[in-house]
Structure formats: structure tokens, C-alpha cells
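Bench notes, bay 3.
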Amino acid sequence: MFSASFLDRAGNWFLESGIQDPTGGVARYYRHDSGENRLISTEITGYAISTYTYLYSLTRNSRYLDAAQRASQFLTRTAWNSRHATFPFEFDPSTRTHDPHTFFFDCGIIVRGLLSFWRIAREQEILDTAVKCAESMAVDFPIPAGASSRHEGFYPILRVDSKKPLETAPHWSKGPGCYQLKSAMAWEELFEETGDDRFRRWYDDALAFSLETHRHFLPGSPDSNRVMDRLHPYCYFLEGLLPHLYRSECAAALRDGLARIGEYLSAIAPQFVRSDVYAQLLRMRLLAETHEVELVDRLTASDEATNLAGFQIASLDQRLDGGYYFGRLGEVWIPHANPVSTAFGLQATVMWEQFRKYQLQMPRQALI
């Protein structure tokens, strides 16, 4: 059993803070300045399922499985739109109404979350929903490339009812890009679970597009704060390479990406830094060595782990204690206790401790 106070506190935050609604859905984040949770996010609920199953793998605490089951049932029985075969962006538990939009990225994260619990529970409802969502991702979201049979990435946002795309906008999450490869990993994982070769082909197409375009993603803006924001999705691209790191072009992209992110992070962090970037970068550094792509610089990784630890919140308030802050502007904490930041932070810290003891052996499917 893995035992560490930071892990106990982070896990307890997921279980006891109220970030998971009684419906089973998980809020986007908790704002401690206003004392309120944001609306339930289907994407964040997917991340939470992956986190609960990861915590269960470390502790064998059945409370994490119970939480994963509640979150899975929320997604398959409340959030899932069977008519349009997709998941809406957000859910308001007070009115029990859904947002009218669906995101490509969110759907892939949800599928990966459902699969993480399906591998334990083997409930057919979970796998069936994951398959239907993944199929609709492949049919509804690709951006046509004129006369070519190739696509130009994926529309980031569609209307649920019409499947019509929204106009793209400057923010990275409202445009296509290499970061969508993290979501496409859901197809590769479904191929592994079902043997359906369509899923592998869809992942391979997304990989080819991402490798062709990723160099243009950074810096992406003359505003250094916006560059920091873009480091987070660029890490998603690196994570999405994991299934094919044996390929020379994927290994080269990972090495190059780690160097670029590290340089930008070091330069921008004094004025604005996100905890998830520290966590994602550290995770991929460690996985790069375990996949024999690049050796870890121990001093750099240790500094990143130390900086990451500083984002975990210590508070007498149960809604905060053990969670991780989203980020910091200068010396001022951004007042969000954030599930994704907490999930990435706890996993990166566990991985670092395991790595230092020569005990890191994590299947890529367990990456939150």
C-alpha cells in the first residue's frame, strides 16, 4: 500500500470537499473567495473517475471505487445524450439542465475515464457508452480538408442538437490543435479493449495531423501569460504521443517538447504559473526515461516537484484542505481549488517518489 500524507489529503479532498456533487458529477472547480462550486463539468467528471481509479490502485480503499461508480453512473445515466450520442459540456444540478454544446476534447477525456473504471467493474453499460461516444467523435468532429481524404484536425465545439460547429476563437480550447491528441488516446485504448481496428486508424490519423502541426502551437501569443496557458495543452500533445513513443518521430517530438516547455516555464513562472504545467511536465519527464526516450535531469525534476508541492492547500476548511491551487500570479494564489490540478499534482508527486525509489512502473492507460 502507498502511504503519504500529501496523498491522503488530496484523496480526502476528492472524497469529502463537496467537489463531487450528490448526483455523482464533479464541479469544474471550487472558488474559495465566493465559497461556491462551479457547475458540474462532464470533462472534469471524466478526469475524476480516472483519479478515483488511480487512487484505488495505490490504496485499495473501496471509497474511491464507490466515488468512481457514482461518477460513471452520472455520465452514463444523467449526462449522456443518447439521441445525439454525445456528452454536453456542463450540467446544472439545481435545474437539471445541460449546456447546449459538446467538446471534442472533453468527450475523449470522458471515454478514457469510463474505461479506467470499466477495466475494474466490467459493466457493459460503461463500455457501450464509451464506444458510442468515441464513434460520434470520429463522425461529427473532423474538419474536412477539401478534396483530400485527410482531415484538418477536429472542430473543438459543436452544438449538441445540430452537430454544427461553433466559430473558432483565439483561446486554444476554442480552436483545433495538436493538444487534441490527448483526447484521441481514447480511440487507441478502445482498440486495445475491443479489437475494433477503426479506433486505431482514427488515433493514427490524429497522430499524423498533430505531428505535422505541433511546432506552430508555441508560443502562440506575444503575451507571456497566454503562453503559460498554452503550455498546459501542449503538454496534452506530449501525453498523446505515449502509445507510439517507439517511433522515432514521436520520441523526437517528446524530447523537443520537454525542452521547449521547460524553457518557457522557467522564464514565465515568476509572473504567472499554473500548477498543472509543473505536474504534466514532471510526469512526462519521468515517462520519457521509463520509455527510454530521454534521461531525467534529477535536479530539474526535483525543483519541479518541490514547486508543485507548494500548490497543495493547507486549510482548516474541508472544502480546501488537500486540494491544489490552479495557479499563482506573482505571489498571489488564484482562488480556485481545482480537481484537474489536484489530480495531476498528486499523480506527478507519486510518480516522482516511485521514480526516486526505482519503483515507477505505470501503464500509460493510468495516466490521468
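Next record in the batch:
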Amino acid sequence: MVYQGTVTGPTLWNLFFEDSRHAINETFFTEIVYADDLNAYRIFPFSSDNVAIKASLNNCQQELHKWGAANQVVFDSDKESQHVLSLTDPLGDTFKLLGVTFDSELSMAESISELVSAAGWKLRTLLRTRRFYTDADLVVLYKAHLLSYLEYRTPAIYHATRAILCRLDAVQTRFLKDIGVDEVTALNKFHLAPLTTRRDIAMLGLIHRTAMGKGPAQFKEFFKRDPHTKALHDPRNDSNAPITRRSALGLVAIYNLLPHSIRGSKTVSAFQRSLQECVVKFALAGYPQWAEVFSPRIPLVSHPIMIHSQVMASPI
């Protein structure tokens, strides 16, 4: 027995639980372990039938249960589930990972619906107090009580379509409208960029951290340098799928377009601060799509970073 809350508990549990992966690997699945949460996945060819995939999932589950029986580990059946993630032929209900609801099509519609619903009453509660505070105070309260809640799921929902994400963006739009502050003022005076801009900057920060050789090693598989050009390899060259273009993988092309002075930032905070300053320049210059200046959803041939590069180089 490894008791929770002891100093040696986590280490002892990791040592005990470590060989559970062998049961999974023997069925050609790959494990992902976080404490006692165990997930397994396998990439199947597009032509694979769901019946065959389901049989393979059952086999993996049975082998893991055999390991559990031999090591006196019982898996909670209520927390076990099987899913086939596919845009065309999904299988399985929604499931939660680290507090985020995923659907088998990865549309993230249900996750965003839950988020918008919860944020709605939080926002109403905040706005009831507006007669006691200045605009600056309300923005500080919004950042403290809502913004972190809205952005917790950013890496998971970033690839969702505009139609789905606009419901989330409307939360901040409503807040600014109710306190009588326009988006440019919120950006320039209160340092509050639109949520779509903040998502782009957050994910570009992830790419920059990986490019500096920091962060989880798994990201290096997706964000790696081309040995010839020294720029990051663009995943768009390998896949033309819309979900690739609007995901963090599509942001690699945007990262490569950034000026060297920004990509050369020594820290992620300095890098993101430079990006925020660029957004302010575009907003003050009157560029109509300034909130999407770093968006991968705009075609590269007409992307503002390419067409209006002089704006990024000009002082604020």
C-alpha cells in the first residue's frame, strides 16, 4: 500500500506502476501516464474499420487487466472508456482529460459550450459590482476571475473552427461592451487583447519555447528545425488538411515569418511581449484585421505579416 500524502508516495507509486506499460506496448499501443491516470493510444490507417479497431482496443484493455490482476491493481470501470478519434468516422462518447471535455470528432463544441455557460454566470456576477469600481478596476477583476478560467483550455480548443470559437470570444466582447470600453482601448490602455489574439500569442509562445530546446520533449517531434534553412519545418508541407492549418501546427508558418529580432528573444515572456507590441502597432495603424495578425487561418499569400512588415518594424 502506498499512502497518499507521504513524501515517498509518488516515487514509490511510479516505480510500482511503471511496468504496466509493458502490457500496453505488447499490443502495439503507446501509453501516457500521469500519476495513476493511464491512457493508451494507437494510430491506425485511414482505411481501418471501426470493428477491427474496437477489437484491438478490447485486446489492449484485457492485457492491462491481466497485469492488474497479477499486481493487485483494480481499474475503476466507470473511468474506463474507448474512443476512435476521426473527422469522418468517429466512435465513442465524449471524455475528459485534465478537466477538458473532448468529443470523438475533436470539434470541441461541447467543451466550449460548457465553458461559455460557466463563464456567463461568472461575468454576470462581476458586472453586478460595476457601480463600485472604475473601468480599470473591472478589467483587473476580469483578468483575475475570468480570463484565467477562459484560457485554461486554450491548447485543447485552439484548432476549433471560427464558428465554435466565436461563442467563446463573445464573452470578452460582452464584458467590454457592458463597461463601455472598445477593443483598441482595452488593448492599448489596459493591455487586454482579444481572446483570439491571446490564443495565437499563447501557442506561438509554446512553439518558441520548444525552438529554444525547452519544455516537454514531446513537442520537439512537431516543432523541429529544418537542417538546411534553420527555420522550423512547416507541417503544412506534409498535410493540407484544414484542421492542420488552423491548429498549432499551422502556426509554424507564422512563426517562420516573424522578424529575426522577435524570434531571437531569449525568453518566452520577452517573445510574447514583442508580439503584443506588434498587435498594438497594427491596431493603432488602423489595420482592420489587427486581432488576427498572427492567425494561421489567414492565407499566407495575403497574410498581414508579409504585406505590412513595415508596421512591425516601426516604433509604437
